Predict the 3D structure of the following.
Amino acid sequence: MRDVLEPEASRWRHLIDTFAAVVARAGYGQIMLPVLEDLGVFTRIGDATDVVTKEMYDFTDKGGRHIALRPEFTAGVCRAYVQHRPTTPWKVWYAGPNFRYERPQRGRYRQFEQVGVEVLDVDDPMVDVEVIALGWEFFSRLGLRRVELHLNSLGEPADRLAYTEALRTHFESRLDQLSEAARETLARNPLRVLDSKRPDDAAAIASAPSITEFWSESAAEHYGAVRDGLRALEIPFIENTALVRGLDYYRRTTFEYVGGTLDSAQNALGGGGRYDGLVADLGGPQTSGIGFALGVERTLLACDDEGVFPAGDSAVEVYVVDTTGGAEASLVAARLRAAGFSCEQAFGQRSLKSQMKSADRSGAQVAVLIGPDEHQAGTLTVRSLRGQSGQTTIDAGDLVEHLRRVIAVTCE
Ligand code: HAM
């Protein structure tokens, strides 16, 4: 778990604002969910997944309830849907922290931030296209160019089941070609063996059957419509039949945005897919659902690697220095903030030199100086801190007007 300090914190907020702007324009409304849910909400993600079996932060609370810190948002969104029964289609977006007890490394943390969207109760493949396109639009808005979209379909539940069994048979007859880790995965979830990046497993994976042979007509048709829709929007994608995703609730469309600059163990900037059975699993009516979540930390790492979406300038515009005791500085600062300037002041009745040092460090464009002379004459001295140095003394009443001329006002 990490602390996020400035200027990274501002960049982080700007990223979430950018995401919110992209999805709000498509009619998605924000949902804010509790960080804790009943454990049962998350066990629906699938008992064959590491997220549920190994990585959950779960505990018993003082009331004896078995609860967990959320490892993702989708199950919570479906729980909220069952509870509130909103009018549909229900299109929501979210941002916030999730918790998984994973082995930390670059791009993989135990507390990590996601932004994402979910759409409930629309079966139309065009909603798959809209959802996938929103993620794509977001990455391009950040300036990322080396993102690949990987696309697959896991078929209808019966197709997925038949495929899982075919994989089990295939891999069980080739146990000698599998690593110890892959054999363990096989016992829990044959689909996930396809995720192995170990060279030892490559041959057995290469000869494995493909999901395409198991698609029912309706699954193939849905997938075809999604592909056509993406092509119509000129969104490039790579068909990846080994893309099975780490959570059990997926059926039909699955996709991942893969960062071209990141290590293969954590190069998924985000991913998602359809989970048409999850609402029913949580006690609601049969409802289709689709969405994605993107990892904020990984996305920012990709931005660093590509040299895009830099941290902005979070410095204030004005720094008020007061050697007369400090009360005056508070009044000037309040006046400037009310007029729309960003403004800091020095505290602690320090010397002029020490206060000016703080002013320089703050990154402000100008310092407003209040000394005994100014105090007496009802004036203020405005000193430039960037670019050309220089200072002017003005009537205190003219300050706002004067600063409007010398500072490019950025506040609304
Ligand atoms: P996920 O693939 O588990 O999917 O996570 C989505 C993204 O969250 C990943 O691609 C990655 O960028 C980020 N992420 C996951 N775990 C970590 C971690 N330990 N550290 C840093 N980043 C991480 C889901 O969570 C699904 N709920 C997505 C979804 C929404 N499917 C349908 N709707």
Observations:
- DSSP finds 15 helices and 16 strands in the chain.
- The chain has two domains: 8-156+216-306, 318-406.
